[in-house]
Amino acid sequence: DADVTQTPRNRITKTGKRIMLECSQTKGHDRMYWYRQDPGLGLRLIYYSFDVKDINKGEISDGYSVSRQAQAKFSLSLESAIPNQTALYFCATQDRGDEQFFGPGTRLTVL
Amino acid sequence: KNQVEQSPQSLIILEGKNCTLQCNYTVSPFSNLRWYKQDTGRGPVSLTIMTFSENTKSNGRYTATLDADTKQSSLHITASQLSDSASYICVVASGGSYIPTFGRGTSLIVHP
């Protein structure tokens, strides 16, 4: 079984809709991250969490919110999706050696 | 501001040939540097980690180097295979921070 899972894997939605991307992990790591990836721009940090009560904004948090329901679960929400949020979204965990373990990604298209 | 620059942005080589990817960083204080491989449609996976005291580290056909004085790293791929086609991302961790700095990646295409 995959250590970091993301659902859904693909999603097409319309402008203005609320959407939630979910991430679960079985690695037992406290640190979890949400990134978006756009062609030519690389991975950019949206939000990160070091435990259930510690949630922080990344460099591009506007238009997004997160929830850390448990050590194993970290969800990303788009309250009112817009077309420029079309991207590939990755959830990741991080171990004490700073290695990040990524999920398979969610491809989101906002029409 | 911490930054990681990678070159080239993209690279096309023939199967069996060698290639070298470059990474320059301005991250302080430096903790470690990792190279990740990202296959199309998948999440990145760590290939190697370099700490301050390490100059060279190999992982099969992948060899990473680190020059902490000039703040440069390279990833050398020997005898390339079609499966090496991927994006290679340089990531630098800063001491005391759990937020690594990512380069934008080098897209490598290996042609038969």
Describe the structure in your own words:
The complex is a heterodimer of chains A (about 110) and B (about 110). Chain A has about 110 residues and is mainly β. Chain A is about 0% helix and about 60% strand. In chain A, a hairpin with a 5-residue loop joins strand 9 and strand 10. The model of chain A has no long low-confidence stretch (mean pLDDT about 95). Helices cover about 0% and strands about 60% of the residues of chain B. In chain B, strands 2, 4, 5, 9, 10 and 11 form a six-stranded mixed β-sheet that branches. Chain B has no helices and eleven strands. Chain B has about 110 residues and is mostly beta strands.
Condensed summary:
Chain A contains no helices and 11 strands. Chain A is mostly beta strands and 111 residues long.
Output the keywords:
heterodimer; A: 111 residues; mainly beta; seven-stranded mixed sheet; four-stranded antiparallel sheet; 59% strand; B: 112 residues; six-stranded mixed sheet; five-stranded antiparallel sheet
Chain-averaged pLDDT of chain B? 95
- The total beta strand count of chain B reads 11
* Computed structural class of chain A: mainly beta
Largest sheet of chain B: 6 strands, mixed
Mean of all residue-level pLDDT scores of chain A: 95
Low-confidence stretches of chain A: none
Backbone CA Rg of chain B: 13 Å
Helical residue percent of chain B? Answer: under 10%
| Helix run count of chain B | 0
Write the topology of this structure.
The complex is a heterodimer of chains A (111) and B (112).
Chain A: E1 4-7, E2 10-13, E3 19-25, E4 31-38, E5 42-51, E6 54-57, E7 64-70, E8 73-78, E9 87-94, E10 100-102, E11 106-110
Parallel strand pairs in A: 2-11
Antiparallel strand pairs in A: 1-3, 3-8, 4-5, 4-9, 5-6, 7-8, 9-10, 9-11
Chain B: E1 3-7, E2 10-14, E3 19-26, E4 30-38, E5 45-51, E6 56-59, E7 62-67, E8 72-77, E9 86-94, E10 101-102, E11 106-111
Parallel strand pairs in B: 2-11
Antiparallel strand pairs in B: 1-3, 3-8, 4-5, 4-9, 6-7, 7-8, 9-10, 9-11
